[in-house]
Amino acid sequence: MNSEFVLTLSCPERPGILHAVTSFLLGHGCDITEHQQFDDTEHGSVFLRTSFSAPTDGVTLDGLRDEFAPVAAGFGMEWQLRDAAVKPRVLVMVSKFDHCLADLLYRWRSDALDAEIVLVVSNHPDLEPLAAAEGVPFQHVPVTAATKPEAEALLLDLVEEHRIDLVVLARYMQVLSDDLCKQLEGRAINIHHSFLPSFAGAKPYHQAHRRGVKLVGATAHYVTADLDEGPIIEQEIIRVDHRAGPERLVTVGRDAERLALARAVNWHCQGRILLHGNRTVVFS
Ligand SMILES: Nc1nc2c(c(=O)[nH]1)N[C@@H](CN(C=O)c1ccc(C(=O)N[C@@H](CCC(=O)O)C(=O)O)cc1)CN2
C-alpha cells in the first residue's frame, strides 16, 4: 500500500528544475501519478504541481520534507509538500444567505468535498439549524462596528483552537479588517456574487440589472484587505435576458456562486492553486 503526496512549488526559471524534482522522487522510490507545470516566460517564473505515490516503508512526509529542503533551497523554491489523504480543516463563515453553506455541507456529507468542515461561524443565529442538521458545530459571533475587533479576535482564536487550514466566506457579509486579512493571507476564500471586476461591492445583481447585462456570474477569490480585489481562483457565468429582473438575477446567480465556490474550495484543498502576485495559477 503506497502513500499519496502532492508537491507544489514556484521558483525563478532556469534549467534543471524538473530534473531535480524527478530525480529526487525517483531516488526515494516514488512514482509520479500526475504532473502539471506552467512557465511564465514574461516574469521568468516556473509553477509546478506533482502528485506521486511513495512506498510506505521508510518514506514519511517529514522525511521527504527534510530531504527536499536543500534541493528546494538550491533553486530558490517556494514549496509545499502535503499528504493527499489528509483533508484540510475548513471553517465556513456565513451571514443569512444559506445557498453556498447548504451546497458545501451537502458536498461534504456526500464525500464530494476534499475537506473536513469542522465549524460554521456566523454574525447571525439564523443558519444554526442548517449546520446542526449536518452535525457541524455552529458559533454565533455578532459583529457591529464597535465589536468588530473582539469578534475578529474570537475568530482567530477559533481558527487556532480548531487547527483550521482554510476559512471560507460563503456569503459572509462583513468586511474583514486589514489585520485579519493579513493573518489569513492565502487561506481565506470568498465568493463574490458578480463576474468581477464588474459590479464589485454591494448589490451586484441590481447593478447588473441596471446595466442590462446578458451574462451574470460569480467569482471565488482569495480574501485581501482591498474589498473584492483578491486573486481570482474561479468564475462562473449564466446567460440571462431582458425578462430577468433583479430578483431573477439573484436566483440564477446562486447556481453560479455555488459552483464557483465549490470548485475553488476543492482546488485549494487538493493543492491545485499557486499564488502568482495578485493572480493565481490553477492546475485544475
Ligand atoms: N477584507 C475583505 N473582507 C471581505 C471581502 C473581501 O474581499 N475583503 N469580501 C466580502 C464579501 N462581499 C462581497 O463579496 C461583501 C460583503 C459585505 C460588504 C459590505 O459592504 N458590508 C457592510 C455591512 C453589510 C451588512 O451588515 O449586511 C459592511 O461591512 O459595512 C461588501 C462586500 C466579505 N468580507
TrEMBL record:
It holds the Pfam family Formyl_trans_N. The active site is at D228. Residues 89-265 form the Formyl transferase N-terminal domain. Its EC number is 3.5.1.10. CDD domains: ACT_F4HF-DF, FMT_core_Formyl-FH4-Hydrolase_C. One of its GO terms (biological process) is 'de novo' IMP biosynthetic process. Pathway: Purine metabolism; IMP biosynthesis via de novo pathway; formate from 10-formyl-5,6,7,8-tetrahydrofolate: step 1/1. This is Formyltetrahydrofolate deformylase. It comes from Streptomyces antnestii. The gene is purU.
